[in-house]
Amino acid sequence: MSAGPVILQLVGATRVHGDGAREVRALDEVDLSVRMGELVAVMGPSGSGKSTLLNMAGGLDTPTSGEVLLAGDSLSDLDAKGRAALRRRRIGYVFQDFNLIPALTAAENVSLPRELDGVRARKARREALAALDEVDLRQLANRFPDEMSGGQQQRVAIARALVGPRRLVLADEPTGALDSTTGEAVMKVLRARVDAGAAGLLVTHEPRFAAWADRTVFLRDGVIVDATEPDEPEHLLTTAGPRHRDGR
Ligand SMILES: Nc1ncnc2c1ncn2[C@@H]1O[C@H](COP(=O)(O)OP(=O)(O)OP(=O)(O)O)[C@@H](O)[C@H]1O
Ligand SMILES: [Mg+2]
What we know:
It comes from Ruania alba. Residues 8-246 form the ABC transporter domain. The protein is an alpha/beta fold. The protein has one domain (38-60, 79-244): Rossmann fold (3-Layer(aba) Sandwich). It has helices at residues 50-57, 80-90, 106-116, 121-134, 150-162, 180-195, 207-210, 233-237, and strands at 6-17, 24-35, 39-43, 65-70, 73-74, 91-94, 168-172, 199-203, 215-220, 223-227. Bound molecules: adenosine-5'-triphosphate and magnesium ion (MG).
């Protein structure tokens, strides 16, 4: 499968926290491009800058220096409100700690970004139920987060990231609280969405989940220290590997 145009581009993206002796370079001159149709895995030890990279990519935080471009437009040209609107419309974000709203049911959590974007409540609910169906949670649509297991909450967060026509999915360890079977199922959903023309950036600690990606970048101390090529021969030879299974 050939990848499409570049949707996300980080150019010399740097994020520094604190100053002087307490300065932390969470991200240090990172260059990265992600194309439509591409799923890119991000791996690296705790504290290496993976969440920081995702926050930059999603416009949740802005680089100290360098640039983040979404479909060619610089996020730094937008104000906070503009970035929020862009995120709602174009970017699905699965947070490391889910971030579900406790007072809303699963279906309401998933439909919220659509309703905020002006989609009528009925249509938003229909889309939410379809997204919950994709993660096999349709039957828990009316439960509240505290009535669900950690893995179920995580799947709701994934449904919320996939709902509607989102084209860029940023997922920070979406399989962290899932058993391996459910984890594989979630990867299948992500893979299918990307194959259908979206793009994805996936943080994971698990090589077996990274195997679903087209390539992997490795971070250490805020720097990309290694990356696999998009079409490594090894990748093409593992015909039984996840990448080659039917997405659905
Ligand atoms: N608000 C902050 N103030 C100071 N330092 C921060 C802040 N946020 C992150 N950092 C530091 O930036 C570095 C990168 O953090 P980040 O959360 O991106 O790591 P990570 O790779 O996602 O780790 P994990 O696997 O544990 O989630 C860490 O050293 C962290 O302590
Ligand atoms: Mg993190």
